[in-house]
Design a protein that fits this description.
Elements: H1 3-29, H2 35-55, H3 60-83, H4 85-105, H5 115-123, H6 130-160, H7 163-192, H8 201-215
Helix pairs in contact: 1-2, 1-7, 2-3, 2-4, 4-6, 5-6, 5-8, 6-7
């Protein structure tokens, strides 16, 4: 099997898993299905994120203590989680969007460069045009507004709309909206930048990963 085929298969597996998770999450947060299964699906992303953080802790005793504390917390909160499944999914959706909005938005504050500007410099070995600096700063702002705006919309729908409507937005439409914004940004890039200043998607992903590793001192170096 070639590397390209393996990458495509991995991508397909990810799409299938995310799609299945979204359907189960929609069904559960709209009030259907088994409460324990719905709660388990709802906490899975949080548990995975927590385990990733633990794996980056250099001390084995701290990893064990953290795992035991997390397990105790999960067991203690489980009755509340299974009785408040819609709230569980809402908090997960809200937290992810606020975290991403902050991740992008904080780079727009202060004297430093915007997040996507730094990623662009990484792709082009530190040298980019003033036009690209302006463009990448604007794109960083767009993503910041998107994440905070979607968090606000999610909150409004959760508070004032039927659960089915909120669940459809949060679980079924969020990823298509992200894809739509990627497509719109691609069209904008084609119009705003010359060919030599348009990196490919693979280059962007690799640079983003490198940047994320540099931001996290505990992350393993390649």
């Amino acid at each position: 099997m070639t590397a390209t085929t393996a990458a495509k298969l991995r991508g397909l597996v990810v799409v299938v898993i995310v799609g299945a998770w979204a359907l189960i999450a929609h069904h559960g947060s709209a009030g259907g299905g088994n409460a324990d299964l719905n709660a388990a699906v709802g906490v899975t992303p949080v548990v995975v994120f927590f385990l990733v953080l633990l794996s980056r802790t250099p001390s084995l005793p701290l990893r064990i203590a953290g795992a035991l504390a997390g397990l105790a917390l999960l067991v203690g909160l489980w009755p509340h989680a299974r009785q408040n499944v819609p709230l569980l999914y809402y908090l997960q959706h809200l937290g992810a969007h606020l975290a991403l909005g902050t991740f992008f938005g904080r780079s727009l504050i202060g004297p430093g460069e915007a997040l996507i500007t730094r990623i662009a410099r990484s792709i082009y070995n530190g040298t980019i045009s003033a036009r690209k600096v302006r463009y990448t700063r604007q794109v960083t702002l767009v993503w910041t507004v998107f994440f905070f705006g979607n968090a606000l919309l999610s909150t409004g729908l959760f508070l004032f709309a039927p659960p089915e409507i909120w669940s459809m937005h949060a679980n079924l439409l969020t990823w298509p909206l992200v894809g739509l914004l990627f497509a719109a940004e691609h069209l904008w890039r084609m119009h705003a930048l010359p060919p030599e200043e348009r990196p490919g998607l693979v280059d962007i992903i690799r640079s983003f990963r490198r940047h994320s590793r540099r931001q996290d001192p505990a992350a393993p170096r390649s």
